[in-house]
Design a protein that fits this description.
Blueprint: H1 2-12, E1 23-24, H2 31-44, E2 53-54, H3 55-60, E3 85-91, H4 105-110, H5 113-120, H6 125-143, E4 157-158, E5 164-165, E6 169-176, E7 179-186, H7 192-195, H8 204-241
Antiparallel strand pairs: 1-2, 3-7, 4-5, 6-7
Helix pairs in contact: 1-2, 5-6
């Protein structure tokens, strides 16, 4: 088992190890690579949270993945602050290939059944998985959470035209060649001031303010997408005209 862990770590991490006495850590790993390695360990029965530890200690300590305390749900994290923003980018090619996605620990650990079903219906499932994974990372960053926030508890739904939606965040996902980028903006919390008043007392000023907030958020998403597109297109244009 220790050789399997060494081989898996060396295949994913820039830092190489040779024996069970060498340390592993999440340093130098992207979030996606870290989750791939963690999913591999979960399949073996161990839960690793990115700490610096020797394989020997990992195998001998009490880090069995059956401990339910390691799982964190978005429902347990109160969405109190308004206006937090998260941005993320992921390389599609880093996602693991699969023959049967339902047998892949990485996908079943980090995605809900509904998300997996949605992606499998599309022409490029891996690209769609990368976009959803990126959106989850954006939400985690907006919440100020760490990288080991259980991603399967953050569910990205899709509306009737296929756009990604989340009950607590405005989200947008874009794709360019091998990359998926996303942004998440926390929705304002409803308060007694804007939900408890009778309809006849709901003044026009409040309606106008809500509309303005919606326009501002849409404008921010649009500007973000323009910036991302520019980042990818400008180098290509320069190369073309050379």
């Amino acid at each position: 088992m220790s050789k399997k862990i060494i081989d898996a770590y060396n295949a994913l991490s820039k830092n190489k190890i040779n024996s069970v006495d060498d340390v592993i850590s999440s340093e130098g790993m992207s979030s996606l690579v870290r989750d791939r390695f963690r999913s591999f360990l979960i399949k073996l029965g161990y839960d690793w949270k990115g700490e610096t530890i020797t394989i020997n200690d990992l195998l001998s300590n009490d880090s069995k993945s059956g401990d339910t305390n390691t799982k964190v749900s978005t429902k347990k994290n109160s969405l109190i602050e308004v206006g937090n923003v998260g941005i993320d980018i992921q390389n599609v090619n880093i996602l693991p290939d699969f023959e049967d996605v339902w047998l892949s620990e990485f996908y079943t650990t980090n995605f809900s059944d509904s998300e997996i079903t949605h992606c499998l219906k599309l022409d490029n499932p891996k690209e769609s998985f990368a976009g959803i994974y990126s959106a989850k990372e954006s939400i985690i960053k907006a919440l100020g959470g760490d990288g080991f926030f259980e991603k399967s508890t953050i569910v990205i739904d899709h509306n009737e035209v296929g756009a990604p939606i989340h009950q607590d965040f405005f989200i947008s996902i874009s794709h360019d060649n091998d990359f998926a980028v996303s942004i998440a903006i926390k929705k304002p919390l409803l308060t007694k001031e804007n939900v408890s008043e009778p309809k006849e007392k709901f003044n026009e000023v409040k309606i106008e303010n809500i509309v303005k907030k919606g326009i501002n958020l849409n404008l921010l998403l649009f500007i973000f997408q323009l910036i991302v597109i520019s980042i990818f297109l400008i180098p290509k244009c320069i190369a073309y005209f050379k």
